[in-house]
Design brief:
Pfam families: JmjC_2, WHD_ROXA. With 416 residues, this protein is an alpha+beta fold. The protein has helices at 45-51, 73-79, 129-136, 244-258, 285-296, 302-314, 331-341, 373-380, 385-391, 395-406; strands spanning 58-60, 87-93, 96-101, 117-121, 146-154, 169-183, 206-210, 215-218, 223-239, 343-345, 351-353, 357-360, 363-366, 382-383, 410-412. α4 (244-258) crosses α6 and α7 crosses α9. The protein binds succinic acid and cobalt (II) ion.
Length: 416
């Protein structure tokens, strides 16, 4: 389904402060690069990345045996009723495609007995620890590329029509059955005048019926059509792929905000040689030339690019609001508590790093040797009590972590 957060409306409603009841789930570590895993049909992540990633589709039977839908149908419908959640309802009644945006109260949804409708909720990992845990299984791909987990519920015959996406996706069947048909066709012309992207011509080349636990990986631009056979739920683990245009615009904005990359950022435009004119509306050629040389003086380094990417890619989605603790522990009590029960990143926190900086939720923090432990926190999304104790003497570390705790970016305690 062609919707990824690069398309998120900038004005998305602000998030609520609490999540639906969910049983925290212990984080499931992704398989290590050279260990064969059922998740990838007994390939190692390294083999999968070499042979399939961005290259060709792969059907994996029983990628997650005995998988359970992370949310029940009722919990899912409740989620779609929340203001800040991005929900869409797609119906295909009497051969007509229609799209509506949520929130949807339960009585605004068609009956589950009615055929051919589907409800999609984007970014479910932000609202529920079980879904976040499912997304974490795919962290053999860098976090910088990982986007979100979308869940779709479909009544019998429901789907979003034949289409293509511009990003990689793993389509994991978690409840009921869905028939997927795919094609590497070159003709990606869309039907005009529809509220959603539906291909004008679709000629399936391969077809499979997916059952709970089965998964289909699709690289960008493979045409696909998934139709529910009986009611079903599908989790779609999607990746982000910003366009060159978006990256360029955002990078230039980042440079301008920093204000230190232009050769002489405060140099004023001057034109002592400007002659009097009889065509005042004409843009002076000398002006264009002069501005050209100012722009040619804009310089950036590899660190500017890393710093842009780290802050840009760790920026939370527009709808995200963190939940700071209502009665935060002071620093001493925080340290004593974390030394007993460890800490974990909030499920909404993005923490990336490179050789010189950490990027947490869109902010850049330089680090010194003492902060090396942050690598572990970033890679595992938690620090055990034992590990925390080893750093609790370093007040620069504990002060930073306490700040993050007060902001709701990390929580005390490992997941159950
Ligand atoms: C997709 O085609 O990308 C997912 C659509 C769905 O889950 O219905
Ligand atoms: Co799709």
């Amino acid at each position: 389904m062609p919707k990824r957060p690069t398309d998120h409306p900038a004005d998305a409603a602000s998030a609520r402060n609490s999540s639906p009841a969910s049983t925290p789930a212990r984080p499931i570590l992704p398989p290590s690069p050279d260990t064969p895993t059922p998740l990838l049909g007994n390939l190692t992540p390294s083999q999968f990345m070499r042979r399939y990633w961005q290259k060709k589709p792969l059907l994996i039977r029983q990628a997650i045996p005995n998988v359970e839908a992370p949310l029940s149908r009722e919990e899912f419908f409740e989620l779609a009723d929340q203001d800040e959640v991005e929900a869409r309802l797609i119906t295909h009644f009497r051969n007509k495609w229609q799209l509506e945006h949520g929130p949807f109260a339960p009585d605004e949804l068609p009956s589950v007995k009615q055929r051919a409708w589907t409800l999609l909720v984007q970014g479910v990992d932000l609202y529920d620890d079980r879904t976040r845990a499912l997304l974490d299984r795919f962290r053999f791909v860098p976090d910088a590329r990982l986007d979100d987990l979308m869940i779709s519920y479909a009544s019998d015959g429901g789907g979003v029509g034949p289409h293509f996406d511009s990003y990689d996706v793993f389509l994991l069947q978690v409840k009921g059955k869905r028939r997927w048909r795919i094609s590497a066709q070159k003709d990606l012309t869309l039907q005009p005048g529809l509220p959603l992207k539906v291909l004008q011509h679709f000629e399936a080349e391969e077809e499979w019926l997916l059952e709970p636990g089965d998964m289909l990986y699709l690289p960008p631009h493979i045409a696909h059509d998934g139709v529910a056979e009986g009611e079903c739920m599908t989790c779609s683990i999607g990746f982000r792929a910003p366009s060159a245009g978006e990256l360029t615009a955002q990078f230039l904005y980042h440079l301008a905000e920093r204000g230190d990359s232009a050769a002489r950022p405060d140099a004023l435009y001057r034109d002592p040689q400007q002659p009097a004119v009889d065509r005042p509306a004409e843009l002076p050629a000398a002006l264009i030339e002069r501005v050209g040389s100012i722009l040619a003086g804009v310089k950036w380094s590899e660190q500017d690019i890393a710093s842009f990417l780290g802050t840009y890619l760790s920026e939370p989605k527009p709808s995200v609001v963190f939940d700071p603790p209502q009665r935060p522990l002071n620093e001493a009590r925080f340290i004593s508590q974390a030394s007993k029960s460890g800490i974990r990143l909030d499920r909404k926190t993005n923490l990336l790093y490179n050789r010189r900086f950490f990027f947490v939720n869109g902010e850049e923090t330089p680090f010194n040797g003492a902060k090396k432990w942050l690598f572990d926190l970033a890679d595992h999304r938690c620090l055990s009590a034992k590990r925390f104790v080893t750093l609790s003497d370093d007040s620069s570390v504990t002060a930073l972590l306490h700040e993050w705790y007060c902001a709701g970016w990390i929580q005390v305690g490992e997941l159950a």
